[in-house]
Design goal:
The chain is an alpha/beta fold and about 525 residues long. It has 3 domains: about 220 residues, no CATH class; about 180 residues, no CATH class; about 100 residues, 2-Layer Sandwich (Alpha-Beta Plaits), CATH 3.30.70. Helix content is about 35%, strand content about 20%. The strands form 6 sheets. A 7-stranded antiparallel sheet has the order 7-8-13-12-11-9-10. It has a 4-stranded parallel sheet with strand order 3-4-5-6, with no helix packed on it. Strands 18-17-16-21 form a 4-stranded mixed sheet. Helix 14 links the parallel strand 5 and strand 6. The longest helix has 30 residues. It is globular. The termini are far apart.
């Protein structure tokens, strides 16, 4: 047993050292950025040149664009609705729509008016993503060398019904484009994925089951067996909290599945002594801003000696910022995409006129901005819908704090339910005067309807949203609960008194203004 542990330690140390060394050049290139404007303009030129022959590039005269000003005049700002028809064609096998590069797969994310959107991934977009991921990982290893000696837990989850439905919808033979990465490590590419996978505390095959209870149980057992766990990387902190609570609740079932020596170490599990369980755990990486701040604080309280590092701003569409220890926050991933910004206060999701749009080098400390991306995956001047604040600079790189969403999206644990999608669901079921209200771990359907099955039907319809279905399967969110509201009672509203408009969706940020009905 001791020999096996030592061998695993040697394998982990070798793989981690190889990862740190392989990612050092990208880290150095980011920190060597001196002329942020020139760096960004060069990225834009390459994207436009590469995609000039695409249908989108021809329609917007990419070949004749010579400057950022030309680009802004030729290409309007966009939201996801501007790409829905194009990505549907891509999914069915049409080439050259948004990019000249082949689309390798379409990655699902939560939609705005539709249940889900499919983001095109090209080789260029994956490279852009890696130019954010690699500096972050190298920086972690450099700042916390203890990570080199241990294993890592990167969240992996089984594909759910929403993904299965998307794959079935676009199963059109050999011409169809694959739907969805199998796991987060796929973002890194084949070679890097093999390196990172060799230090996983939970093997990838655990996520191949379709039984969520079995998946959660197997994940718990592998984590309990990982005496050398050093890094935990999850998206929403509630996922790891759910696993911890499951370990304690089912300790009598899980502990006999471990070796004798590990069972002794795991005994403090019943007392919640996580430090004794994983003495080498050094860093937990998760969302910790906006709606995730409270659950992140709860998770941090369970690990007082462990660094909880807030993730940067990452979206399916692109990589905006990455945490650097020396920066004290997340810096702009300036070598990933072409970024534009516009001053925003959270009241309006739309940017101002072209002359009010800024480049990265023009951002000012203390100001709040909406983010726009132009990427190698075929999104051009795409309004991401996220609000950031510049809290400082690390060299020439702006340090960005994530404040929340600009568009009306409810995001408790990463589900990103949009008002347009929720409205469509409520109208479909004859619940147009009802409101869907975010609670701590579920949504309430506040309604005058007497239908006892209304909440169940709404919950099922919401699960067509990729990330909502994901949160429900993991137990991060419970089912929608029906809450009666008297017919004369006021629904959740927005606007001035006398100009009251019903709010079909009440997210965490809206809850303070909610006029509550009768439970």
């Amino acid at each position: 047993m001791a020999g096996a542990v030592r061998l695993r330690g040697l394998i982990s140390a070798s793989a981690n050292a190889a990862i740190a060394a392989a990612y050092a050049p990208e880290h150095a290139r980011l920190l060597r950025t001196r002329d942020l404007r020139a760096t960004q303009e060069d990225i834009l030129r390459k994207i436009l040149r590469r995609n000039a022959a695409s249908q989108f590039g021809k329609a917007h005269r990419f070949a004749s664009i010579r400057s950022v000003r030309d680009f802004r005049q030729a290409v309007p700002t966009s939201t996801w609705d501007d790409y829905a028809e194009a990505t549907d064609r891509i999914a069915r096998g049409e080439a050259g729509v948004l990019t000249t590069e082949p689309v390798r797969l379409l990655e699902p994310s939560s939609g705005s008016t539709a249940a889900s959107k499919l983001v095109p991934y090209t080789r260029s977009l994956r490279a852009e993503y890696q130019r954010g991921l690699k500096p972050w990982l190298h920086d972690l290893y450099r700042a916390y060398p203890r990570l080199l000696r241990g294993t890592s837990y990167w969240s992996i989850t089984p594909p759910g019904a929403a993904l299965a439905q998307l794959r079935a919808r676009y199963a059109v033979g050999s011409r169809g484009v694959p739907i969805g990465f199998d796991e987060d490590a796929d973002y890194l590419g084949p070679l890097a994925k093999r390196l990172v996978s060799s230090v996983f505390a939970v093997p990838q095959e655990v996520a191949r089951t379709t039984d969520m209870d079995r998946f959660l149980d197997d994940t718990c057992v592998h984590l309990l067996a990982a005496c050398d766990l050093a890094l935990v990387s999850v998206w929403n902190p509630t996922l790891f909290t759910i696993l911890l609570d499951r370990m304690r609740a089912r300790a009598d079932e899980f502990l006999p599945q471990l070796g004798d020596r590990r069972r002794e170490v795991a005994s403090p599990l019943r007392d919640g002594d996580w430090g004794a369980l994983w003495p080498g755990l050094t860093v937990i990486s998760c969302w910790a801003d906006a709606a995730a701040s409270a659950p992140a604080a709860v998770l941090a309280s369970r690990f007082p000696g462990v660094v909880l590092q807030p993730k940067g701003l990452l979206a399916t569409e692109g990589f905006v910022s990455l945490p650097l220890v020396a920066a004290g926050g997340a810096v702009l991933s300036a070598r990933s995409h072409f970024f534009e910004f516009y001053e925003a206060d959270g009241a309006s999701p739309a940017p101002p006129a072209a002359d009010g749009v800024l480049m990265a080098h023009e951002l000012e400390v203390g100001r709040r901005y909406g983010v726009m991306l132009t990427t190698g995956g075929g999104l051009y001047r795409y309004r991401l819908g996220d609000l950031v604040e510049v809290t400082g600079h690390h060299g020439v790189l702006p340090v960005l704090g994530f404040l929340g969403r600009l568009d009306h999206v409810s995001d408790v644990v990463g589900e990103k339910l949009s008002e347009a999608f929720v409205t469509r669901v409520l109208v479909e079921y004859g619940l147009a005067d009802s409101s869907l209200v975010a609670a701590d771990d579920h949504y309430d359907l506040r309604t005058t309807s007497s239908d006892p099955a209304a909440a169940d039907r709404v919950d099922e319809a919401l699960r067509a949203n990729f990330h909502y279905d994901h949160a429900r399967r993991l137990g991060q969110l419970g089912p929608v609960r029906r809450v009666s509201r008297a017919p004369e009672g006021l629904a959740a509203t927005r606007g001035r008194l006398g100009d009251v408009k019903p709010m079909p969706l009440v997210g965490p940020a809206d809850s303070a203004s909610l006029h509550r009905g009768t439970a």
